Write the structure tokens for this entry.
Amino acid sequence: MMIYVHMPFCRQKCLYCAFYSLPRPKEGIINKYVDALCCEMQLRKNELPDQPVETLYFGGGTPSLLALRQISKIIETLCHCYDLSHLEEFTFEANPEQLTNDYLLGLKHLGVNRLSVGVQSFSDADLRFLNRRHTARQAMDAVKAAQDCGFDNISIDLIYGIPQSDSWQENLAVAQSLGVQHLSCYALTMEPGTAYARLVEKDKIHPCDEETVIAQYNTLIHWAKQNGFVQYEVSNFCKSGYRSHHNSGYWDGTRYMGFGAAAHSFGYSWRRWNVSDVEAYIKGVETGTPFSESETLTSADLYNEYVMTALRTAKGVEKSVLELRFPAFAQHFAEKVRQFVQRGLLTQCGTAFRPTPQGLLMADGMAAEMFV
């Protein structure tokens, strides 16, 4: 089982962010939110069958806005509600400007063994464009400080496809020089409701053309091979032995509990999601009124989700998984998959159908054509 804890606050909204988060939180609201989080954990501790927690992930928003005492309180509550004795991976997302030595040592003391640092770029011009608060120097210093404090499993986020930027190759070179173990690399996309989308609609920003974005993605693929990084998902690259177990669990269909506003949970046959509103979430937890919705998943839903996530990974779709978990749709998949093998987008490796480099770029489109 996996646990995800959502921290939906940030100092300011990034240009591209489409996730639910509350910028510039009011004084005292984070304390109230932590109390509600702990209460939700108590309320839902029997929702899934009792089994050890293997991965824990604090995401956001900006989890590093939490004080160490607040993180400690959340962990103590989790230990009371769940079996964390077999915890293998504890990931904590953080922004570079908040990673002081004292904070890093505190995270280490609390059991965090994997840091995910929101770098986005090592170019100050890019960072200003993206509305990030940190500088390139702060990003580099934060990674080095984490290493000095004993963190040996560090992931950084990078963004490519930034308009009028020529820093992509330099970003990769800096990442290599820092010796990080994991990269999550995303193309800058125009998500509805974001500041980026509004500026594009007003013709104040012109996005990169598709050819440039694909060229930068191909540069990333080549760089990864040259520098010992394995691509195990469309956007994720790691040194041997450093893939994210938590994120891999999402793609493999592992059950998980999500706590906090906008957090999702998955229990094989159902999915649940909390309200995307901090005040409504806190009030719901405090008063016992509904603060989430849920749905029952059909076998077709689960098949579609498996195909969608598997085609985004290097493992691809396993024939044995199809036949064991989705026997009713195995023939449907067999009929659909042939065209993509013929077009060079998938290759058959034993009993698995794995995306080629070109296929990874078209994974979502392939999945949609295989849906039932």
Q: What stands out?
A: The chain is about 40% helix and 20% strand.
